[in-house]
Write a structure and sequence with these properties.
alpha+beta, five-stranded antiparallel sheet, four-stranded parallel sheet, 14 helices, 36% helix, globular
């Protein structure tokens, strides 16, 4: 099995190795092999994934490694835009004896091009913020006048933590116009709460992990620096509209593999899609912590299965998963009795904490242990959390409410 990308490889590989697969991981990090050997206790063959790829390059890589199964595994910086290449190469490479579970080209385009997503959303009636596609600076300035400052300016093809600009005034708008790669999407700025949900699709089936609250929308556009929690309950109308949108996405574009939606619930209680990603994300830590079912493990098992081999969804959430951004390397006291603390430090296969200077441990809180968790939060030394203990307490309460009230997305037959 050839794994294309090193993101969370220490979680993706164990099910493959236990099944007897000979796994090869291609990535950017020079220390992948040593890290995986130390973390997995097994020797894993590793190779270099080129920083730039063409469709023909992908085919040459697949031929060179003589893979029976190729597993796209985007997530590390610089690899997200490979998804459309994988989508185009896969049909040329697949045979009766070779499989490459990857999103088809139409879905890959939606997941990697914000302009394409906005246009298709408008055509299909998916709820998105008001926006204008712009091919140059004059159009951006006109769109900003039409929508009213502040606005979000998003480059069509950009990866996470890049290509998004919260523009507050005309001077900043001029600077952004001089820096961005066109085309761009200019959108109204939403006020409200941000959420995320992760999915895994295999043929006609799609399973969903619990919705996670990513905190209040802000001008930093960095939900990974906020206190986040899963599960989170949604207003009934929003839940129904979200489920209908996901059903239409899966029935129309047939995703195959892991994917994620970021969306907002506005102050008026309306649903608005923010972003579609053709991969798992940092939300997967909370998905795992809340349900006990790691989406990366489910992704591996799905890749191992023969076509139409079935897809098992996660169990219902059994605890609140509270993610607490702290400065990298910050020690935390032991978690209260009957709770747990899951640590996700930076590594050569997940360098984001190193680059961003932030660790994101997850406190797991079973029902009935919220008071102990709240006391633990309040006793943390000043400066431990990037955010206020009050914000953490509010998200803990949201997660406890979600544990009691949140139900699974009702996706129907095609996406059940």
């Amino acid at each position: 099995m050839l794994v294309l990308g090193e993101f969370r490889a220490d979680r993706l590989l164990p099910p493959l190795l236990r099944a007897g697969a000979e796994a090869v991981v291609l990535g950017f990090a020079p220390r992948i092999a040593a890290f995986l050997a130390s973390s997995l206790g097994a020797e894993v063959v590793c190779g270099e994934l080129p920083i730039t790829l063409s469709e023909q390059d992908v085919l040459r890589l697949l031929a060179h490694w003589r893979a029976d199964v190729a597993v796209p595994n985007m997530g590390c910086p610089g690899q997200e835009q490979f998804l459309p290449l994988y989508a185009r190469a896969a049909p040329r490479w697949r045979t009766a004896d070779r499989r490459m579970p990857v999103h088809p080209e139409g879905f890959a385009e939606l997941a990697s091009d914000k302009v394409a997503l906005h246009r298709i959303a408008q055509e299909r009636g998916w709820p998105v913020p008001k926006g204008v596609v712009c091919g140059g600076a004059p159009a951006v300035r006109a769109a900003a006048r039409e929508l009213g400052l502040p606005v979000m300016v998003k480059e069509a093809r950009s990866e996470f933590h890049a290509g998004r600009h919260y523009v507050r005034d005309d001077g900043q708008l001029d600077r952004v116009c001089a820096e961005v790669a066109f085309p761009v999407l200019v959108q109204e700025v939403l006020a409200g709460e941000e959420y995320g949900a992760e999915f895994l699709s295999d043929g006609p089936l799609t399973v969903a992990w619990p919705v996670a609250s990513l905190g209040r929308l802000d001008g930093e556009c960095a939900p990974g620096r906020r206190v986040r929690v899963a599960p989170a309950a949604l207003p009934e109308r929003v839940q129904a509209e979200l489920a209908a949108t996901v059903r239409d996405m899966t029935e129309t574009f047939r995703p195959h593999g892991p994917w994620q939606l970021d969306f907002a619930v506005t102050g008026e209680g309306l649903l608005a899609l923010i972003e579609l990603n053709g991969r798992l994300s940092g939300v997967s830590n909370m998905s795992w912590a809340a349900t006990g079912a790691d989406p990366h493990v489910a992704h591996a098992r799905s890749a191992l299965a023969a076509p139409a081999g079935g897809l098992a969804g996660p169990p219902p959430p059994c605890r609140t998963a509270l993610e607490l951004p702290v400065p990298a390397g910050t020690p935390l006291p032991p978690a209260p009795e009957s709770t747990g603390l899951m640590l996700f430090p930076g590594s050569p296969v997940n360098p984001a904490p190193w680059a961003g200077g932030v660790d994101r441990p997850v406190l797991t809180v079973p029902e009935g242990r919220e008071a102990a968790a709240l006391a633990w939060l309040r006793e943390l030394p000043p400066g431990t959390l990037l955010n206020s203990p009050r914000e953490a307490a509010g998200q803990l309460a949201r997660g406890a409410r979600g544990l009691r009230e949140a139900g699974p997305l009702s996706l129907g037959r095609e996406g059940s």
